[in-house]
Amino acid sequence: MASDYAVQIEDLTHTYFTKTEEVTAIRSLSLTVHPGEFVVLVGPSGCGKSTILSLIAGLIIPASGRIQLFGNPVNGPSPRIAYMLQKDGLLAWRTVAQNMILGLELRRQATAAAIADTHRLLDEMGLSHVAHHYPHQLSGGMRQRVALVRTLAVRPDLLLLDEPFSALDIQNKIHLEHLLTNVLKEQQKTAILVTHDLEEAIAIGDRVLVIGGRPGQIRYTLPIPTDIRALPPLEARAHPSFRSLFSELWREVNRIEKLA
């Protein structure tokens, strides 16, 4: 069934159980994401941001509500989704070249053409010279670039990113932001990012949603102006309007933190 939305969430509630209590992580959350859009989720720790990604990915089943991916109900993990985490997850006994095709192998898509395309991505990341290295021979930034290649290699329609650059220094972070946004724009892919870095949210997102309260809900939406969205992440940070947007987002996140 054709849909105007890449992701459509309606009245979503999720509850989980600890040894001592029942906790509702998010309640009555509704959200739509258009194809090709880059949406960023920010907010205090524990407000349900990562839970939202896991629900969209079909890794957990909501207590109530509905999630659709490109018009189809989400009932479990989908091959149209790729998920990238803060931890790179590279396998120590496999080379870079072997690690970056792991997703293709698991999906039985490791054709000669797909592998060649993955090597092209590795070259775009500036890492073709380490294809036969092992993870322990790489810096943290290089490892995360390899993880990004592995994630993009399966050509997902929707990319879910849970703080993938948070452990990196600012130079590596901005470099990876640039690489990621370039690939997403070239391939017209949809992405949802969770981050605590408000500058990053404004520099690479099309729309920033502030999640807050307990249970978590969307408390504020900040659309990013077209002239900032058109710039690479480093140049976006230097735009005359960037600081005012940052101040607005900072104010809202701090206000919403008090709801927790």
Kindly list the characteristics that best describe this protein:
NitT/TauT family transport system ATP-binding protein, 6-stranded mixed beta sheet, alpha/beta, Rossmann fold, single chain, 25% strand, 2 domains, transport, 36% helix, 260 residues, 4-stranded antiparallel beta sheet, 10 helices, nucleotide-binding
Notes on the structure:
This is NitT/TauT family transport system ATP-binding protein. InterPro entries: AAA+_ATPase, ABC_transporter-like_ATP-bd, ABC_transporter-like_CS, ABC_transporter_ATP-bind, P-loop_NTPase. Keywords: ATP-binding, Nucleotide-binding, Transport. Residues 7-238 form the ABC transporter domain. This protein is α/β, with parallel strands linked by helices and 260 residues long. It has two domains: 33-60 and 158-260, P-loop containing nucleotide triphosphate hydrolases (Rossmann fold); 81-155, no CATH class. It has ten helices and ten strands. The chain has helices at 49-56, 96-99, 102-106, 112-124, 140-153, 170-187, 198-204, 226-229, 233-237, 242-257, and strands at 7-17, 22-33, 38-42, 64-69, 72-73, 81-85, 158-162, 190-194, 207-212, 217-223. The strands form two sheets. Strands 6-7-8-3-9-10 form a six-stranded mixed sheet, sandwiched between helices. Helix 5 runs parallel beside helix 6. The chain is globular, with a radius of gyration of 18 Å. The relative contact order is 0.17. The model has no long low-confidence stretch (mean pLDDT 90).
